[in-house]
Amino acid sequence: MKIFLVDDHAILLDGIKSILEKEPTLKVIGEANTAEVALEFIKQHEVDLLITDFNLPEMDGLALVRLVKKISPITKIIMLSMHDEVHLVKEILKEGINGYILKNDSHKELLSAIAAVDAGKIYLSNDINKIIINSLQFPDEERMLTDREREILKLIAKEFSNRDIADQLFISERTVETHRKNIFRKTKTNSLVGLIKFAYANNLI
Amino acid sequence: MKIFLVDDHAILLDGIKSILEKEPTLKVIGEANTAEVALEFIKQHEVDLLITDFNLPEMDGLALVRLVKKISPITKIIMLSMHDEVHLVKEILKEGINGYILKNDSHKELLSAIAAVDAGKIYLSNDINKIIINSLQFPDEERMLTDREREILKLIAKEFSNRDIADQLFISERTVETHRKNIFRKTKTNSLVGLIKFAYANNLI
DNA sequence: TATAATATACCCACTACTACGGATTTTCTC
DNA sequence: GAGAAAATCCGTAGTAGTGGGTATATTATA
């Protein structure tokens, strides 16, 4: 199995490689610190399995997954992320990846995931399964933001005032206030601090 | 050399262990996901070298370093962190640790650090050296916060209002406002959002 | 085409925080 | 014990944002 690794932390990359090298059936044929470099490689070589982090500089793991699906549909993908935030997880799973494990899972979980994916199965780590099931049991009434709301949230996070945002988007300050209100309601936060934390947790900023 | 590893991400722990096992002179005698478990071990066993992450649940790496220095002064310490924020780095180096490397350094850097520390030297990764030198060249006029200011910043980040904070610390709301003013001045931020970002970057929350 | 979702806009009362200013007490350090 | 740093406290005016509404145009979608 030809494996390609992507993570912005070299030491983790080295560590995983060291773990995988012990398995005779697996072969790490390349690695990259950025999505861009990974894409370049995948365009030119056949890769059976891509194991990628979500947090990457510039292009993130989600964007990478989407592009890899296009340029190399046969390549299977395992997301190896530290994020266990339900919306982000859902967003990533929607793309139809083959496995999702967390960085606080052990290497055994990684090896199990690789074996499962190799056998054509989908592998989710225990914690991820819990998150999914939990979110089914307690659907949190559409916390998802609309595009416009997300856009405005990003501007809020960039330290613009309502006035600034209104000017920038050529809309009334009132409108911004309304969006802001809706964002607060949907994210179930009521302070700016909580909102920024939400944005961080959901990787919106 | 008897080494103990601390990191909240099991997969990284596994990876590093796998790398270190290749070196015949090194022996990983234990590992932990939390500072608390690590301390318990160090109290009962002799550890030559502690390699720890900064980001840990509950007690952070800095607190761990301080305690280890007390209960086992012979134990050398290498910080393995993803943080390259100048103030945090300085704060940690002040404790007199033996090495500081970043997670985006390669495993070679880690091995070099271990060798250097074993030889009684202090090892800082290239990026850390750059940061230190840069901060000497451009000293940013005491962005450091006092204990009280840090305490208040944390409460702000916990979504408490000035009124709440005043009540909690048994001080006047005016005092909180003054601290807040000073915090904004020192951190060179002028919006709550910027402040929260600062707090995140400096791992205060 | 009907319906829902989204984006737009407004009002009013209220609260929290900001931006100036200045001042005193406590604690640490030489 | 002098001096610096930190922590405490206050006033007043102004601004930005909150929370409660309501309402209409536009765009998807079934």
Low-pLDDT residue intervals, each spanning 5 or more residues of chain A: none
In whole angstroms, how far apart are the ends of chain A?
A: 36 Å
Which fold name corresponds to the CATH topology of the largest domain in chain A?
Answer: Rossmann fold
What is the mean pLDDT of chain A?
87
Oligomer: homodimer
The CATH architecture category of the largest domain in chain A equals 3-Layer(aba) Sandwich
CATH class of the largest domain in chain A: Alpha Beta
Strand content of chain A: 5-15%
Give the strand line-up of the largest sheet of chain A. Answer: 2-1-3-4-5-6
- Let me know the CATH homologous superfamily of the largest domain in chain A: Response regulator
Radius of gyration of chain A: 19 Å
What is the largest interface, and how many residues per chain? A-B, 33 and 33 residues
Main pleated sheet of chain A: 6 strands, parallel
Structural class estimated from helices and strands of chain A: alpha/beta
The H-and-E topology of chain A, N to C, reads as EHEHEHEHEHEHHHHH
Number of domains of chain A: 2
InterPro entries (chains A, B): CheY-like_superfamily, NreC/VraR/RcsB-like_REC, Sig_transdc_resp-reg_C-effctor, Sig_transdc_resp-reg_receiver, Tscrpt_reg_LuxR_C, WalR-like
Domain Response regulatory (chains A, B): 2-118
Protein name (chains A, B): Two component transcriptional regulator, LuxR family
Organism (chains A, B): Belliella pelovolcani
